[in-house]
Design a protein that fits this description.
The protein is α+β, with helices and mostly antiparallel strands and about 325 residues long. It has three domains: about 80 residues; about 80 residues; about 150 residues, 2-Layer Sandwich (Heat Shock Protein 90). Helix content is about 60%, strand content about 15%. A five-stranded mixed sheet has the order 2-4-5-7-6, with helices on one face. The chain has a two-stranded antiparallel sheet with strand order 1-3. The two termini are about 25 Å apart.
Length: about 325
């Protein structure tokens, strides 16, 4: 972009040239009308042609000046879109003198926000790290209690430790997502996340013979932090593997500016009246099953932060289908 120049001067010069050209054109036209009314057949061709050329040139130059004066706003809009989509972190370029202070203030605001996010993420990480040690100690005490024959006490401690861990994960995920700024458009490959999670869960459930079929296009990407996509897909795949009899399928497709990810299992599924309630915090489809009932709630809250949705329905392979929609990157 050209160097900073006063927007006011461009508009004034452009308006002056346009007006001058318009007046010159009117002079040519009015002269032609007067000559015609007098019955004359000849018009001073050289004079009229020269004046007409000057008029057209002035009008074109005026339009060019006006367009040049307004073009920085189009560039600014493109830069803002790039920041929103995560392709840039700052608004680069030089702008007219009247616009540059606004751009500088926006860049200062973006810098401040980035520092604030970094501090928030650091504090959230410190909090999570600080809680892991006492939780690990409690887990060891549960193991000692079980070894000493106090199975009821050990089971109660282990259950509460697991619940606290899930609570920490839940609130840490929420804090990270809120601070990461989904509006800035982080970029994450769905295939990279799905493949890594599938390999991990395949090993965890190897004893049950669960097959995880990944059918995710390599080109599909979403506006989301990798950690948060792993959290969402990880919860959905983990739930599917827990309830599946033998098979889990994850697929992706593009639909109206969103990437739609479906996770199917061939398990017993969830009855229609329960599908909405299990997305609420602390609710499980089977109260006898292990866990804290936060998995689907985490998915729902994180999806909402990024402008996405999560829905449950019947799967084509007779179990449950979880459909996660996130904005396409």
């Amino acid at each position: 972009m050209r160097g900073a120049r006063s927007l006011r001067s461009r508009l004034v010069v452009g308006s002056f040239l346009w007006t001058g050209g318009l007046l010159a054109a009117w002079e040519v036209l009015s002269t032609a009308i007067r000559v015609h009314q007098r019955g004359a057949h000849l018009l001073p061709v050289a004079h009229g042609s020269m004046l007409f050329v000057v008029a057209v040139a002035c009008m074109i130059a005026g339009l060019a000046q006006l367009r040049s004066g307004l073009s920085p706003f189009q560039a600014l809009r493109a830069r803002l879109l790039a920041v929103r989509e995560g392709r840039d972190r700052r608004i680069d370029g030089r702008y007219p003198l009247e616009v540059q202070p606004l751009v500088d203030d926006l860049n200062a605001l973006l810098d401040h926000r980035e520092r604030t996010v970094a501090r928030a993420l650091a504090k959230a990480g410190d909090l999570a790290h600080g809680l892991k040690t006492p939780l690990a100690v409690l887990a060891q005490e549960a193991e000692r209690a079980e070894a000493a024959g106090q199975r009821d006490v050990a089971a109660a401690i282990a259950q509460q430790v697991e619940r606290m861990r899930r609570q920490v994960d839940y609130h840490l995920a929420q804090a990270r997502a809120a601070a990461s700024g989904a509006a800035l458009g982080a970029h994450c490959s769905v295939a990279a996340s799905a493949d890594g999670l599938a390999r991990t869960l395949q090993r965890l459930h190897a004893g049950r013979g669960i097959a995880i079929d990944v059918r995710v296009a390599a080109a599909h990407a979403v506006r989301c932090q990798r950690e948060d996509l792993d959290e969402m897909l990880g919860n959905l795949l983990d739930n599917a593997c827990k309830w599946a009899r033998s098979r889990v399928v994850i697929e992706s497709a593009e639909e109206g500016g969103f990437v739609v990810m479906t996770v199917d299992d061939d398990g017993p599924g969830i009855a229609q009246p329960l599908r909405a309630s299990v997305l609420q915090r602390g609710v499980r489809a089977d109260e006898a099953a292990g866990g804290s009932g936060l998995g689907l709630a985490i998915v729902r809250d994180l999806a909402d932060v990024y402008g996405g949705t999560i829905d449950l329905e019947s799967a084509p392979i007779d179990g449950l289908r979880a459909t996660l929609r996130l904005p396409q990157a």
